[in-house]
Amino acid sequence: MSFVHLHVHTEYSLLDGACRIPRLMERVKALGQEAVAITDHGTMYGVVDFYKAAKAAGVKPIIGCEVYVAPRTRFDKEHDRDKHPYHLILLCRNEEGYRNLSHMVSQSYTEGFYVRPRIDKELLRAHSGGLIALSACLSGEVPRLILGGNYDAARQAALEMRELFGPDNYYLELQNHALPRDRELIQGLVRLHEETGIPLVATNDAHYLTRDDAEMQDVLMCIQMGKTVDDPGRMRMETQELYVKSEEEMRALFSDWPEAVENTARIADACQVEFEFGKYHLPEFKFPEGYTDGDAYFEKLCLDGFRRRYPEEPEDYRRQLQYEMDMIRKMGFVDYFLIVSDFIGYAKRKGIPVGPGRGSAAGSIVSYCLNITDVDPTKYGLYFERFLNPERVTMPDIDIDFCIRRRQEVIDYVCRKYGYDHVAQIVTFGTMAARGAIRDVGRALNFPYAEVDNIAKQVPSGPNNLHITLD
């Protein structure tokens, strides 16, 4: 391994990055490269997809992010002074680094968001362990100071970063995209390297896979900004060099600094982050006083609910209840059912409207007896095995509908009971379907509306055509 791309934007750099993850792996393999990094703008949404795709392709995944660093602090939010954060590439050396980076990115949204999600130097000082930092692109702090004619401040900023991350974990990032000021910046960074000993690393700010994709990425940015390609005032990349290049191309660009290319492999070797899948990390249910055994409390609630739901206690229903209880115990989901039953019970006690249950969970007598659902599965001949069975490799999915006006009360209850740092909401990404993609691209290319509409309407739509592709 002698060259690795350490600055790459996937499709999770939304409407900016155009390196689709599966195709990125194909491209890296075709170039004979053995590792690649993910460094999306301010986010780590794509990390798990990226990791899985890389492992499946036999490529080493390097987990990172191009974070935004507030010029002052993440809490300062004055338009004129705080709207232009610096860029900084952070790569995870180990699990400590991954935890630190995840924490900082979370804080950038919950505390630092202003135009973009921002961290600050305070967070970096507290959470630099296990991370490697690169000085980033033209928008990095050190590059901006060099190009602004303030070399002494750039030197001071670089030395501060080296002290913060450690002498082996901070690099000056050389890039050459044939932009007007690239040569000036390279000269400044090389001078810094010679004066301070801070090592160099060669990167390409990859936003798309091949040179031919530059036009496609340009259209993507037009969609992001609500502009057309012929708008003279729009933001655009003034180069077609932001692609995943071969080692030969990178060595030719940085022939005077071969160590900068070789340092990419050294950094890749130093990054050793492994994710563990298929292991559940469920919170412990906090059962009431007098109970020290979750299984016993689970059985009591199920039997109490059974007597309430089925006063005559039919034997065949009782056997089904026992079968389901045994299966839930065997699969380790007792606490999960108790937790869901608990917060639904809270909502009902507080008069918060709760749906009767839907999806496969409605096929469970245990769900019915624990008041998780209000649909009797025996009445409608519903199958428990659709919900939970030994062959199922994922957790059971209990869909609950709460009143939209009061659902936050339920979320707050769960946070208070289990801790705010143990509760998360899950993001769902929508993608442009074929019709939507045609309409957005047509608008960006400034095609007449009627023509675009006519083309889009030729794409089948409706529930039976959900997977219609452009092909």
Please explain how this structure is put together.
Helices cover 43% and strands 7% of the residues. Helix 8 links the parallel strand 6 and strand 7. Helix 1 packs parallel to helix 2 and helix 6 crosses helix 8. The protein is globular, with a radius of gyration of 27 Å. The model has no long low-confidence stretch (mean pLDDT 93).
Secondary structure blueprint with pairings:
Layout: H1 21-30, E1 35-38, H2 47-57, E2 60-69, H3 79-82, E3 86-92, H4 95-110, E4 118-119, H5 121-126, E5 131-134, H6 141-147, H7 151-165, E6 170-174, H8 182-196, E7 200-202, H9 214-225, H10 247-253, H11 258-270, H12 294-309, H13 315-330, H14 334-349, H15 365-369, H16 377-380, H17 407-418, H18 434-444, H19 449-456
Parallel strand pairs: 1-2, 2-4, 5-6, 6-7
Antiparallel strand pairs: 2-3, 3-5
Helix pairs in contact: 1-2, 6-7, 6-8, 9-18, 12-13, 14-17, 18-19
